Amino acid sequence: MAGAPLPPRFGPLALLHTSPTHVPVFDALRDEDHQGLELRHLVDEELLARARREGPAAVTDEVRALLARAVADGARVVLCTCSTIGAVAERADAGVPVLRVDRPMAAAAVAAGSRVVVLATVASTLEPTVALVEEEARRAGRPVDVRTALVAGAWALFDAGDVDGCARAVADAADAVTDADVIVLAQASMTAAQRLTTTPVPVLSSPRPGLAAAAHATRATHSA
């Protein structure tokens, strides 16, 4: 018996990562939710390392060069999966839509309530994420009170390859949060912690809604 017909391909959607561990995460989400979407992954770990040392603006030229490369290779849309450099990528004039993976999550956080707690494993992510949540709150006309917490030691675990240990540390930090309407996991690398939390407070992560937004934008470029 003939198999099911293959879905029509659309894309390509380029993803700009600062860790290779994100590649299988987004491939799996594509396979679950967006069959037929062609993904092209660009990985540059030095972008995050330098942004942590010197600030996100320091990697502006490198980000623009990577975006230009993605567009030259045929990308219809680019999704930046790194929260630290997301604003830099979003502001670049790439000639195609450039989305940041955490914007849909920030909008969902604002809709969930005014007391937002942002958790991160690297300090450089906190300021860009808070700014994004506050921007989405202004856009929605909603009041917001954003608090932040850095999960001590979690990034060292992730950087050493102990993804499970990092996830457990982040989940423990989320479970310790009080007086919040919603908890935001600021980095895509923290997503695994979402399923480990026991807090009744909603815990949001960025990869699934971020990829959904990028897939929608990519489909729109095909139908335009």
Number of helices: 9
Q: Which range does the strand content fall in?
A: 15-25%
SSE arrangement, N to C: EHEHHEHEHEHEHHEEH
Side by side, the strands of the main sheet go 2-1-3-4
Would you tell me the overall average pLDDT? 94
Calculate the terminal CA-CA distance, rounded to whole Å.
Answer: 37 Å
Main beta sheet strand tally, sense and closure:
4 strands, parallel
Q: Indicate the percent of residues in helices.
A: 40-55%
Low-confidence stretches: none
Quantity of strands, as a count? 8
Radius of gyration: 17 Å
How is the quaternary structure best described? single chain
What general form does the structure show? globular
Explain the overall architecture.
The chain is α/β, with parallel strands linked by helices and 224 residues long. 46% of the residues lie in helices and 18% in strands. The protein contains nine helices and eight strands. A four-stranded parallel sheet has the order 2-1-3-4, with helices on both faces. Helix 4 links the parallel strand 3 and strand 4. It is globular and about 45 Å long. 44% of the residues are buried. The mean pLDDT is 94.
